[in-house]
Amino acid sequence: MTASTAARGAKTRDAAPRPRRAAAALDDSALAHLVGYTASRAALEMKKVFAQHMDPLGLKIAEFSILMLVASNGVVNQKQLGQTLDISAPNMAVVLDRMAEHGWVERVRSTHDRRAQHIHLTPAGRALADRARRIAATMEEPALAPLSRAERALLIEMLRKLVARAEPAPTT
C-alpha cells in the first residue's frame, strides 16, 4: 500500500457522512404558463394517488380503465378499447393477455363479425371492477382538497374539451 492510498483510505474512514439536504426548489416560471407543463405535473401527482390506492389490487392505469369501460359499456371489442385509450393494437393485446391470465377478462368471438373479439369481464373481473370503483370514488379527495366541488367539475369539463378536440372525428 502506498502512502497516497493509505492517506485516501484514512480520509474516507475518518470522514463523517454528510447529512442529505433537501433539493432546493427550482424556479419553474419559464414553464408555469404552459398548460402542458402544468397538466403533466398534476398528472404525475394523480398517478401517485392512483398507484397508492390501486397497486394493492394489482391494477395499473390501463387495466383499471379497461375494467371500467367494459363494466360500463357491455359489448366492447379490443379495437374500441385501443382507440378510446390510445393504446396500440399490439400493446392492447399484451394488456388484455395479462388481464386474461389474472382471470379478469375473457375474449369472446363476435357472432356478427368473426374478426372481432368482444371483451367480457369474468366474475372475478366484475368483483375487482366493483371494488376498484368504490376505491376510485374517494381516492382523489385528499389531492383535490384545495379545489371546491365546482372547481373540480370545471377542471374535468375543461380537460374533457381538450381531449375531445384532440380526438379524430369518427369515420363512417
Give a brief description.
The chain is mainly alpha-helical and 172 residues long. Strand 1 and strand 2 form a beta hairpin.
Mind telling me the C-alpha Rg? 24 Å
How would you sum up the global shape? globular
User: How much helix, percentage-wise, in residues?
Assistant: 55-70%
Which strand order spans the largest sheet, edge to edge or round the barrel? 1-2
The count of DSSP E runs of length 2 or more, i.e. the number of strands, is 2
Question: Would you identify the CATH architecture?
Answer: Orthogonal Bundle
| CATH C-level name | Mainly Alpha
Name the CATH superfamily classification.
Winged helix-like DNA-binding domain superfamily/Winged helix DNA-binding domain
Question: Mind explaining what this structure looks like?
Answer:
With 172 residues, this protein is mostly helical. The chain has a single domain (39-164), classed as Arc Repressor Mutant, subunit A (Orthogonal Bundle), CATH 1.10.10.10. 61% of the residues lie in helices and 6% in strands. A two-stranded antiparallel sheet has the order 1-2. Strand 1 (105-109) and strand 2 (117-121) form a beta hairpin. It is globular and about 65 Å long.
Main attributes?
8 helices, single chain, 2 strands, mainly alpha, Arc Repressor Mutant, subunit A, two-stranded antiparallel ribbon, 172 residues, 61% helix
Write the layout of secondary structure elements.
Elements: H1 3-14, H2 35-54, H3 61-73, H4 78-85, H5 89-101, E1 105-109, E2 117-121, H6 123-139, H7 141-144, H8 149-166
Helix pairs in contact: 2-6, 3-6, 4-5
